[in-house]
Amino acid sequence: YRKMATLSVCQPQLGGFSFENCKRNAVLEAEVTKLGCNVPSARKTGTTICGVVFKDGIVLGADTRATEGMIVADKNCSKIHYISPNIYCCGAGTAADTEMTTQIISSNLELHSLSTSRLPRVATANRMLKQMLFRYQGHIGAALVLGGVDCNGPHLYSIYPHGSTDKLPYVTMGSGSLAAMAVFEDRYKQDMEEEDAKRLVRDAIAAGIFNDLGSGSNIDLCVITKGRVDYLRPHDMANKKGVRTGNYKYKQGTTGVLTKSVIKLDLEVVEETVQTMDTS
Amino acid sequence: MAAYMSAGRSANAFSTHDFVPEWAQEEVSTGTTIMAVEFDGGVVIGADSRTTTGAYIANRVTDKLTPIHDHIFCCRSGSAADTQAVADAVTYQLGFHSIELDEPPLVQTAANLFQQMCYRYREELMAGIIVAGWDKRRGGQVYTVPMGGMIVRQPVSVGGSGSSYIYGFMDSNYKPGMTKEECLHFCTQALALAMERDGSSGGVARLAAITEEGLERRVVLGHQLPKFSNT
Known about the structure:
The structure holds 2 protein chains of 2 kinds.
Chain A: H1 22-34, E1 44-45, E2 49-53, E3 57-62, E4 66-68, E5 71-74, E6 80-84, E7 87-94, H2 95-116, H3 122-135, E8 142-150, E9 153-159, E10 165-167, E11 170-173, H4 177-187, H5 194-211, E12 219-225, E13 228-236
Antiparallel strand pairs in A: 1-7, 2-3, 2-11, 3-12, 4-5, 6-7, 7-8, 8-9, 9-10, 12-13
Chain B: H1 22-25, E1 29-30, E2 34-39, E3 42-47, E4 51-53, E5 56-59, E6 65-69, E7 72-79, H2 80-101, H3 107-120, E8 127-135, E9 139-145, E10 152-153, E11 156-159, H4 167-173, H5 180-197, E12 205-211, E13 215-220
Antiparallel strand pairs in B: 1-7, 2-3, 2-11, 3-12, 4-5, 6-7, 7-8, 8-9, 9-10, 12-13
Helix pairs in contact in B: 2-3
């Protein structure tokens, strides 16, 4: 009695990105463009984010504008993400990528922290983030500013989408980073006081907001010191919406009604179906 | 010598009319000048401190001299992400190997670990690395592992985009049998010349001397670099 070998048709799901739909997407994009429409683009956080090390800890700052092409998709989005009680991370680049990446690392770091019975270190978060971003070879568009205070003091890292990191006393990222860096290079000093550091970060983000089209709205700050985190959202509403000085509504009856006609539409019931609601 | 091979590797996930400027879409590269010199009793290594994304300097005080083990360092040039990842991997492998041996590892071992990784992934990586250090068997050694994954031991080696400008200086000024101080002086001059001419190199000059006793690190700030009159 011979046994026939069964061929497995289903292939196990491999990790990483699946590029199977790229050809189909290219065809669709060509057809849509022919009709004169645009393919929806990924929502990006145009962004200015920055961080600074001061005497007792870290100050992180971010603007709050999220853009979809040339439109502002969200006027007050939160770009400073929680990683652990003593570590926070600002994200620039593709909004979904920064959100999910920080959430994944935050989750893994919490498990790691429970396993080691210790408060997580910033270097650990940095290594986890850089190794994940390198694995995805830059396809995850997340540019991050990671800061926190651990048993070895305050630490600040900048992390690029391809997985390289820099450990520095002050960093800026995003489309408004040049404007913010100009402020830092002018006024940064070692061992600043908390109020000076907050003012410096606020001014750096403001420079990004007012000089970069991709950044705007409010300034969020996050001050991390040993044993205390101040999540100041918003710290400064630099772009409050103005109040209209006059009332521009027209009174009822401004437009005169000349004639009124009511036309009854005779509709025929063609098909009647009942769909039960799932109340289980 | 261009240190970039874009070749579609830095995937354009961002469309061109968005608010992300061009320099932010480029991959972070250590433009770079790196070098290493052997002397009797150890090695002297040196590097500039500039990391660029396109035309923007992302980090002007980078440390491209990365410790792999107590007496073994590597100088990194090429893609910042690639070289950091490879250096981290080799540091782990070498540390594990050293514990297994219960002995300090050989410089040649470290260099071969780099070579194996750089050759296997030669199509995916953009990394030019100089491995230098001291071990008990052969004293001070310099091994260069350029892009592609070759390995060769040299008494003097330069690398990175700025190296093109100092081959002449290196060939004419290097003499076998220099002392540690002479090597440090030689490196400082070479780095200063390269940083002056290469746009992708600059900042401060970082130097390190590795001997049996240990490590001695130096930083030469911008205004302290030797000046060569050309006007």
